[in-house]
Amino acid sequence: MTDINTDICTIPTLSGDPCPSPAVWEVTPDRDVDPYVACGQHVTAPIMRTELLVPFSARPI
To answer: What's the pLDDT score for residue 24?
Structure first.
């Protein structure tokens, strides 16, 4: 899904454009979602698109 070796947020904005914010978190969901890199405002974006609550860990990068 995402290369976690990047420095740009990989989560698209609501308009579908790439997010220009620098990525500051590596997010690792416990299940059903691949790890991804996100800025602070998008840390839970892919997780919130699922119907179930997904525990995750995030570390600053």
So the answer is: 93
Q: Return the residue matching tokens 């590596």.
A: 26
Q: Determine the residue type at 22.
A: P
Residues contacting 27, CB < 8 A, separation 6+: 35, 36, 37, 38, 43, 44, 46, 47, 56, 57, 58
pLDDT grade for 57, boundaries at 50, 70 and 90: very high
The DSSP H or E segment spanning 37 is strand 36-38
Report whether 42 contacts 19 (CB < 8 A).
yes
pTM as predicted:
0.76
CB 57 within 8 A of CB 28: yes
Write down the mean pLDDT value for the chain: 86
Nearest to 53 by CA among 36, 31, 38: 31
